């Protein structure tokens, strides 16, 4: 076999690293997700993580910021418009992100509290925070809340545009959480203000099958990406989110027997994070 020289060796290592990091991609670090989107979110993009209350949007966003700082050396800004930083830290710690306070102290994550009654100053506030920690990742949780602060929807739209442009200028890769309108009995997804400005949309659902809800996730849109187009099961476990192969989501036409439902209930009560086990969210 031909000996390879140092230059060739370095080039192979570089190729490998690019493959690992997905060239020009920002890994979410969320279990099972990055391989569904060609290795990660295209660098500099804004992705809307959309879903009803309790679908896991905040946990998704928090894990994205935490893993960025912890595993990928990418500092992050988290603007919460719904929860206090104290509550977010508590949530993070519940998920085993126990060193989040160290990351906060070290200036690698900035949790930004906002009383955003003044939309005019919001963009500057976020920008200051990005500069302070040299952020590569930004979260706004949730962007839909902005509409609640004023009747002036034009101002809301302008603010979202301003924030988006500013974030892009800083080269940050971002997650906005929000709700997406449903039309036609929920069978089609409609378009809301925030969807105009984002490059990607990931939707979180409570899928009703039999008499249980199952958490699921779908990639609706991801620029420059050949992505999965089916629903995948989503679990919330003690280490964060887990996205599983689509065939593990029960088909809606398969009736789930009482016995299986009881079995799932048992697993849920006794808590398991075994791979491949689908946990129903709730009985209805
Ligand atoms: N430790 C946990 N183990 C399993 N599920 C949890 C845990 N903590 C929270 N959850 C689930 O996550 C949900 C909240 O997720 P969250 O990200 O706050 O939703 P959203 O931001 O979409 O409203 C809760 O309603 C609960 O069902
Ligand atoms: Mg939330």
Provide tags for this entry.
284 residues, alpha/beta, Rossmann fold, ten-stranded mixed β-sheet, two-stranded antiparallel ribbon, 8 helices, globular, disordered C terminus, binds adenosine-5'-diphosphate, binds magnesium ion
Give the arrangement of secondary structure elements.
Blueprint: H1 6-21, E1 25-26, E2 41-42, E3 46-51, H2 57-71, E4 76-80, H3 85-94, H4 100-105, E5 109-113, H5 122-133, E6 137-141, H6 153-169, E7 173-178, E8 182-183, E9 188-189, H7 193-197, E10 200-209, E11 212-222, E12 232-237, E13 240-243, H8 258-270, E14 280-283
Parallel strand pairs: 3-7, 3-10, 4-5, 4-6, 6-7
Antiparallel strand pairs: 1-2, 8-9, 10-11, 11-12, 11-14, 12-13
What would you say this structure looks like, in words?
With 284 residues, this protein is of the alpha/beta class. The protein has one domain: P-loop containing nucleotide triphosphate hydrolases (Rossmann fold), CATH 3.40.50.300. 33% of the residues lie in helices and 25% in strands. The protein is built from eight helices and 14 strands. It has helices at residues 6-21, 57-71, 85-94, 100-105, 122-133, 153-169, 193-197, 258-270; strands spanning 25-26, 41-42, 46-51, 76-80, 109-113, 137-141, 173-178, 182-183, 188-189, 200-209, 212-222, 232-237, 240-243, 280-283. Strands 3, 4, 5, 6, 7, 10, 11, 12, 13 and 14 form a ten-stranded mixed beta sheet that branches. Strands 1-2 form a two-stranded antiparallel sheet. A two-stranded antiparallel ribbon has the order 8-9. Helix 5 packs parallel to helix 6 (153-169). The longest helix is centred in the middle third of the chain and has 17 residues, at 153-169. Residues 15-22, 183-191 and 270-284 have low confidence and may be disordered.
